[in-house]
Design a protein that fits this description.
This protein has about 180 residues and is mostly helical. It has a single domain, classed as Ferritin, core subunit, four-helix bundle (Ferritin). The chain is built from five helices and no strands. The longest helix is centred in the C-terminal third of the chain and has 31 residues. The chain starts with 5 loop residues before the first helix and ends with a helix.
């Protein structure tokens, strides 16, 4: 059994809240995209919502394996309306940056507490956040190139769907390699 200090437990429970909010945020975004007839973006955000939920569940499991009862957080209602697809993805990028900073703070705490198991556990999140920010940055770059006019939305949606399919394929290949 791993001993988690009270500070680490509190920080992990806060992180559960951040991941839960991110999952809810992406779910709301998916259905905003659905309302905008952006099917590719909807699929992207639905997958992201599932992924954030999985991130949350990994922390639950880690805490449970450590003999600690995780705390299920209250979740604030995410925004459900956006000015444009660029605005939506810009807010996504800001959300991911907040989660990245929270992971980094949690890792700093684990280091200061001498909690090597939690440090090792969190490294996966550090890598995951780097990848997620890179994907969102790439989408924002594509939006900048394509523009946001009426026909541009069609191409943005197709690009996001293509990126989504690439991410799914990469995850499948990674899972296959680990098996």
């Amino acid at each position: 059994m791993i001993d988690l200090t009270e500070k680490i437990q509190e920080a992990l429970n806060r992180q559960i809240g951040y991941e839960a909010y991110a999952s809810s945020f992406y779910l709301a975004l998916a259905y905003w995209c659905d309302d905008q007839a952006l099917e590719g973006c909807k699929k992207f955000f639905l997958r992201q919502s599932d992924e954030e939920r999985m991130h949350m569940l990994k922390i639950y499991e880690y805490m449970s394996e450590s003999g600690v009862q995780p705390v299920t957080p209250e979740i604030a209602r995410p925004p459900f309306s956006y000015d444009s697809i660029k605005d939506a993805f810009q807010r996504v990028f800001e959300q991911e940056r907040k989660v990245t900073m929270a992971i980094h703070e949690l890792l700093k705490l684990a280091i200061s507490e001498g909690d090597y198991n939690t440090q090792h556990f969190l490294q996966w999140y550090v890598d995951e956040q780097r990848e997620e920010e890179a994907v969102i940055r790439m989408i924002l770059d594509r939006i900048k190139v394509i523009g946001e006019g009426g026909q541009s939305l069609y191409y943005i949606d197709k690009e996001v769907d293509k990126i989504n399919m690439q991410v799914i394929a990469a995850e499948a290949a990674e899972s296959k390699d680990q098996a």
